[in-house]
Amino acid sequence: MGNRIAxxxxxxNTFHLLIVDVNQPGYRIVHRERQxxxxxxxxxxxxxxxxxxxQRASKTIAAFKASIDSMAVDDIYAFGTSALRxxxxxxxxxxxxxxxxxxxxxxxxxxxxxxxIFEGVKSxxxxxxxxxxxxxxxxxxxxxxxxxxxxxxxxxxxxGAQRLLEMYHQHDPISQKETQDLYQHFDEVLPPLFHALAExxxxxxxxxxxxxxxxxDIYCIEKGITKDSNAPETPLSFEGFRQIFRELLxxxxxxxxxxxxxxxxRVDMIVVACCLIDYVTKxxxxxxxxxxxxxxxxxxxxxxxxxxxxxxxxx
Length: 315
Description:
single chain; alpha/beta; Nucleotidyltransferase, domain 5; six-stranded mixed beta sheet; five-stranded mixed beta sheet; globular
């Protein structure tokens, strides 16, 4: 592993690029970039990456590669998640990325994704007790129960926001019948989560990146809180979430975009994502909610740093 590395997260909705200078025992973030490639759009529930989605993805990767090439990166670590995991044409897509952009993509399992998300969140904050980490992606949602010393339970569920959007959010604003059907779907899919919550009894809910970042942005603007965009943890309260959620349920897309702090990247999926947060927090009582700015890509970085430290120690 060279001293300057690039980590590319090929998510179902959003692609992320992180470029880091690694200097044991620490690191310095050189560059961050994200784009809505919408890899899973119109194909996620059919288990395919459409041609339109691949073209968007390829264009985004080309832009990332330009940034990487301009910054003299030594090594590139690219990984795919739910959309690629479940795609019947996964192999062909990966081969095209290799041919067009000279980037090898490693598709990780849901279990590995959950572990890496936890590693990322753990590098952002101190838990101080058992917490449930919740990461809402476009294709999957990862739940991890852990504390500062270990993971007690983790599972990835194929109920990401792009899947839910295409299955349940046909009217805008979302209809009462659609929310009822959505919550019924959660009833059918999520019993393993609530068995784990009953067994391990975490006190806090920690949301990582994505929807939670946007909820924190909206909350801070509403409350007049100055938010540090580089902070690893940002503010949100359950009362604040409930207030925002009530607004989202009755607004159409244009009206949601008018909410200060809303971004184009989240405006379509945020309603179904918040329905999931609402469902979980009504079924299980947490004493607080926290938001980690760090997630999967920072977990990959933490893993790489551990590996490099082990090699240095062994050598």
